Amino acid sequence: MSVDTHTAPAELSDEELTSLDAHWRAANYLSVGQIYLMANPLLSEPLQPEHIKPRLLGHWGTSPGLNLVHTHLNRVIKTRGLDALCVWGPGHGGPAVLANSWLEGSYTETYPDITRDAAGMARLFKQFSFPGGVPSHVAPETPGSIHEGGELGYSLSHAYGAAFDNPDLLVACVIGDGEAETGPLAASWHSNKFLDPVRDGAVLPILHLNGYKIANPTVLARLPETELDELLRGYGHDPVHVTGDDPAAVHRAMAAAMDEALDRIAGFQRAAREDRATDRPRWPVIVLRTPKGWTGPAEVDGLPVEGTWRAHQVPLAAVRDNPEHLRQLEQWLRSYRPEELFDEHGAPRAHVLACVPEGARRLGATPHANGGLLMRELPLPPLEKYAVEVDKHGATLHEPTRVLGDMLEDVMRATTDRRDFRLVGPDETASNRLQAVYAASGKAWQAAVLDVDEHLDRHGRVMEILSEHTCQGWLEGYLLTGRHGLFSCYEAFVHIVDSMVNQHIKWLRTTRRLPWRAPVASLNYLLTSHVWRQDHNGFSHQDPGFVDHILNKSPEAVRVYFPPDANTLLSVADHALRSRDYVNVIVAGKQPCFDWLSMDEAKVHCARGAGIWEWAGSEDGTREPDVVLACAGDVPTQEVLAAAQLLRRHLPDLAVRVVNVVDIARLLPSEEHPHGMSDFEYDGLFTADNPVIFAYHGYPWLIHRLAYRRTGHRHLHVRGYKEIGTTTTPFDMVVRNDLDRYRLVMDVVDRVPGLAVRAAGVRQHMEDARQRHHVHIREHGTDLPEVADWTWDG
């Protein structure tokens, strides 16, 4: 893109204009055909009702604008020799992008039965929004796509994620004016403060203002141009406007705008890369104003359609039953003069394809949209380098995430030259004890830097912005274009991206069924600052329900882990970073935690997912345990071990089994999840007839939901978070939610047959300890010494 930024763009020649317009008309024709037709694709005979689909589904309103953008991206990619990717933001833009993919040939290469002839065109038309066909969105099935257009708000953050560490890539991003009203999109405008003109590619936002949503005008389209310009300039962009409804004039204006924008981008990159300029560029944004439903019916049944909200979906809704609608549809289709665009066999004519680039530079064929083709294995170091020494179970304490931070530092360092690993999070890297990574890479930052700032780096790969939506979007775009990463977040606030992770899981599930989609690195969450340790934040920061949300999703794509100590966290993180096509959720504390397992024990235990800690129980192997104490999560594990210790002291003849669960999906039946246990396995671990007291990190009913079909479910009693929280001591949190060691012992007494009478004194002793706790914390503000100074005695 080494073009003089001061050179005025050359105007289109008449031949170029004719070719661009032909390509645009062909894409419009194919878009309308997909919405309406299931036969007679070339209109080789008069249109009849039987040629029309019985159910008319799809969205016309945004399609002509998307077709215009695609046509003109083709032109600049070809003439400038660019590697480019486009993120298509407007919802239901599928007809346009499918049409262009078919025209350029990438669709046929991906789906050989959809040939570039009349028969293939008919199949292209019929499959759209048809049973057994393809969605109306730009979906995983769409060649060249990394963005599902169903839910709005994420296009621009996805585009920036794709551009990070891709210095030779242009990422165009079409933002619909409806999408521009969403919170996630509004926050993602600030991504330009994190884009490094030296090491990253460029993002060209194209704000498409066609004026309407489903039934209402859009905010940005109704702003005066001066006010809109002030808004975009405030975001750090320099707007270039294209406005009109005359095709020839719009083509010329769009070509000039694209040239101007790309010349500016080339100038910024050259200044940063060759002249070492450090000023933050004011990147261009194209503001494209064209009518909604442009070139479609101007009026239907006496009501205006083109340029109004009525063009949003299907402008002519009764074509099979209303002869006038059928006549209008045929007139509309023939207005594109298909005989000039396709030969007698249905293939696009040469002049239609004159603007289309070749090979991998076609937008539907770029490998950047199939990132698994470009991905390299992450250079992960051996875990033994970071392992905590455990000579005796529970004898030492470490902060698990701080230990993980040392490992991530080396991963960051090992990818310094290849630049394919990033750590993202909402201003919480140091808070979550991962600050060791700063020794290998600073925090990406292109805005002003003050003397008091620390670790800011124009070329950094640690990404922090106080928008969980933007963090998620960046990482999704980064992963889908073939790189690796980790999202660190406070547990309670990761809920902000509930809907975004829904979409990503649906994307992964769909791509698993597309053999041409190569696997990509998993989306990995590290959730810390969790519910049980919010000493100063309190109730607002206490919500462990993200895992409930995740485990509702496709079992083939989701994994949830609760490593109980530093070494198990290392093992789980290593597994997650090596995995492909999953969403991995890892919940781990950042506070000092007992070291329960050696590295070798941790690897075996994590591979098993759930297992008996023989050293923690009091079984002698001669009979079934009287009770199973199960746990998942670091704090519940400590409370279970403390309860086991109390039981050994007060009820030494009781046979207690301790089971720790790292992989929570192990509780599911094997037919419901790939990691699930068979009934035989489950009954062997938890028993079929004996009481199980399960201390769980999150909401207790999740465990019941996972295990409700098990033989022993009637004997399962779960303790967990009951939505009772405040700013209080660590132990008081577990007491308030009945997860504490004393309550667990009381549960054992209550549920093991014969203990209610025989161990009534033990139960009373436990209740007294809880009362002493309540008095002590209100007087001293700290936990009981027997709790605060507790150690595992082995």
Summarize the structure in words.
Residues 12-373 form the Xylulose 5-phosphate/Fructose 6-phosphate phosphoketolase N-terminal domain. It is a single chain. This protein is α/β, with parallel strands linked by helices and 794 residues long. The chain contains 26 helices and 22 strands. Strand 15 (558-561), helix 17 (566-578) and strand 16 (583-587) form a beta-alpha-beta unit. Residues 1-7 have low confidence and may be disordered.
Give the biggest sheet.
Answer: 6 strands, parallel
Helical stretch tally = 26
CATH T-level topology of the largest domain: Rossmann fold
Q: How many beta-strand runs?
A: 22
| Category from helices, strands and their pairing | alpha/beta
Q: What radius of gyration results from the CA coordinates?
A: 30 Å
Which residues form runs of ≥5 with pLDDT under 50?
A: 1-7
Number of domains: 3
Mean pLDDT: 95
Overall 3D shape: elongated
Roughly how many Å apart are the termini? 67 Å
CATH-defined architecture of the largest domain: 3-Layer(aba) Sandwich
> Strand order across the biggest sheet?
12-9-13-14-16-15
Helix content: 25-40%
CATH C-level class of the largest domain is: Alpha Beta
Corresponding CATH superfamily of the largest domain: Thiamin diphosphate (ThDP)-binding fold, Pyr/PP domains
Q: How large is the share of residues in beta strands?
A: 5-15%
Family: Belongs to the XFP family.
Keywords: Lyase, Thiamine pyrophosphate
Protein name: Probable phosphoketolase
EC number: 4.1.2.-
